[in-house]
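Running this now, will post back.
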Amino acid sequence: MLSRYTTNLEIEKTDKGVQYYTTILPSPITPDAFQFKVVTQDGDRFDSLATRYYKDASKWWIIAKANGYVNGTVFIPGGIELIIPSAGLL
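Update: finished.
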């Protein structure tokens, strides 16, 4: 089972010297024979797509990472084609 907590942490500093941790996710989500594509609708979010396809909103990061959205919002504009990795990866 893939876990979003299987990560490496790096300490970064702001220009004012404040330290914070950044998460470095391991290897990319690799394509598989059972993945499929969907076109998003206005109002879709990664967590709602994860609920729809994996029955678990906490797996939103798998869809986000498979599509190159590693740092950003959970909101997705309508009309974007996304890859949904197969549940066999989970």
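The longest strand covers residues 8-13. More later if anyone needs it.
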